[in-house]
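User: Hey, quick favor. My workstation is busy. Could you predict this chain's structure for me?
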Amino acid sequence: MAQDSVERLLGRMITDDAFRKAVKKDFKAVCFSEGFNLSDSEMAILSKTNFDRFSQLAKTIDDDIRREGRR
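Assistant: No problem, here it is.
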């Protein structure tokens, strides 16, 4: 289900700094390699995302739920 992939992608964007940096460099390649099942329209919408906002949000997340060593 694509909605599940969208939700997993957004959650990972918040909790994984290395993933977020990789997505900023090559969104489509990372989504493909990580197995996110997104429709063409979802890919188009999400690729326009301001990923820097996720960096700001990530700073507010407790380290206990972030991926270790990804800060």
